[in-house]
Fold this protein.
Amino acid sequence: PARAAVTFWEKEVLGKSSGMDNFEGMHGGLLVSLTICWIAVYLVIFKGVASSGKVVYVTVILPYVVLVAFLLRALTLPNAGTGLKFFLMPDFSKILEPMVWIRAANQIFYSI
């Protein structure tokens, strides 16, 4: 699964080619989104510290809006109820298996 994520990132998102001799053009969506971000950064810097209070309102509220949007999207996916049932009603018989604890410790080290 990790290799599939790397392949998706390199081929689809970044649009990486095989080398300098294989130029396939700019990735349109990436170009537009980066341009919008840089214009927003320029406008915030250009306006100065006085406008940073308005920026805080957006940066505080936007993550909650996006989180709610992701939640609503996840709940509308097929088999969302099965996933919620699996998450909310765990199988306690697996708690004695050593592999579960090894994976939990591994996750702790990745989150540090």
Notes: The chain is about 70% helix and 0% strand. The mean pLDDT is 84. Residues 9 and 31 are 16 Å apart (CA to CA). Helices lie at 2-13, 28-47, 52-75, 80-88, 98-111.
